[in-house]
Design brief:
Layout lengths: L1 E9 L3 E10 L2 E4 H5 L4 H10 L4 H12 L6 E2 H5 L6 E4 L7 E5 L3 H10 L3 H9 L4 E6 L4 E2 L5 E3 L6 E2 L2 E7 L5 E9 L1 E2 H6 L4 H5 L5 E9 L9 E8 L2 E9 L7 H8 L10 E3 L17 E6 L3 E9 L1
Parallel strand pairs: 6-17, 8-14, 9-19
Antiparallel strand pairs: 1-2, 1-5, 2-3, 3-4, 6-7, 10-13, 11-12, 11-17, 12-14, 15-16, 15-18, 18-19
Helix pairs in contact: 5-6
The chain binds 2,5-dioxopentanoic acid and magnesium ion.
The site of 2,5-dioxopentanoic acid (DO4) has 12 residues, from strand 6 and helix 5.
Length: about 300
């Protein structure tokens, strides 16, 4: 079961938002059934009914299955559905990032930085690396361009599992995230991290939300491809089995003296780092894939 946000072509307004419930390859109108047009509203509605989101969605799924689907998910994901497209699955209240949660990320930072010890310590210490990524307005959805800064020549995608937090900071759903990073700026000086991480179109989320209990969060395969002029110029894979931190621990550190609004997203760190001679170029296409969640596709643009 997945939840998607749909942009439905509308003669009067251009596009109208709709929530879809994905069951197998069929997408049903969740907005009509749940009375919510976005994920934040869906969370609030579940809270008002005092029912866990997962359980409510199961009940809705039982009712909706016999009805008429609005689209095929495979067509939506590939951008081929008529009059409909996938949108950002939720407008995040805030986006935070965790770093150095995989050995691969630690090794890459140690090699690139003039202060390697700094990264090794954050990988090993009890306190994890957590950083602010976005207030929501720099985050794009499926099919929308991610950005390369005009002052960076070495920007890379960071494919990460993204946790969506509810009212009490519990993980209600997961999706895929891209913590787009200017590695040259990050490597030059650790104090430049906010500039390496936060800029126009620095984050992508999607294609779908999967309720947290529907998947084994510690056994998710993830792949990333960079496609240039129809050719794959980089492909890498990882699994959340290789994660060095527990998700609950990362969240517990994030909310220490830091209450967060429902709908906050935590990117949980990357286990895929392209080799040093690979950098994103405008016109590239980045694909991030996890069989349990879907494929997040974003073209690359200069910002
Ligand atoms: O400071 C480094 C950031 C590392 C990061 O974003 C990651 O490991 O995903
Ligand atoms: Mg990252």
């Amino acid at each position: 079961m997945k939840i998607v946000s749909l942009k439905v072509a509308d003669a009067r307004t251009g596009a109208r938002p709709m929530l879809g419930l994905v069951l197998g390859d069929l997408v049903f109108d969740l907005s009509a059934q749940a009375g919510a047009s976005d994920f934040a509203e869906l969370l609030r509605e579940a809270g008002a009914r005092h029912v866990p989101l997962q359980q409510w969605l199961r009940e809705i799924a039982d009712e909706i299955q016999g009805g008429q689907p609005v689209a095929r998910y495979s067509l939506l994901e590939s951008g081929a559905a008529e009059g409909m497209a996938l949108g950002l699955p939720l407008v995040p209240a805030e986006v935070w990032g965790a770093g150095l949660t995989y050995e691969r990320s630690r090794n890459a930072r140690v090699e690139e930085s003039v202060l390697p010890d700094l990264y090794d310590r954050a990988y090993r210490d009890e306190r994890p690396e957590l950083f602010f990524k976005d207030s929501g307005r720099r985050t794009v959805g499926p099919g929308e361009p991610i950005g390369v800064r005009s002052d960076s020549t070495w920007t890379v995608p960071e494919p990460e599992l993204a946790l969506v937090l509810g009212e009490g900071a519990e993980v209600v759903a997961v999706t895929l995230g891209d913590d787009v990073t200017a590695r040259d700026i990050e490597a030059q000086n650790a104090l430049y991290l906010p500039q390496a991480k936060i800029f126009d179109r620095c984050c992508a989320l999607g294609p779908a939300l999967v309720p947290a209990r529907e998947v084994d969060l510690y056994d998710l395969e993830m792949r990333c491809r960079i496609i240039r002029e129809g050719r794959v110029v980089f492909e890498g894979a990882t699994s959340t089995r290789l994660l060095r931190r527990r998700f609950e621990y990362l969240v517990s550190c994030l909310v220490r003296s830091n209450p967060l609004p429902a709908g906050t997203v935590l990117l949980t760190g990357t286990g895929i780092v392209p080799p040093d001679d690979v950098a994103l170029r405008p016109g590239d296409m980045v694909e991030i894939e996890a069989p349990a969640i879907g494929v997040l596709r974003n073209p690359v643009a200069q910002v």
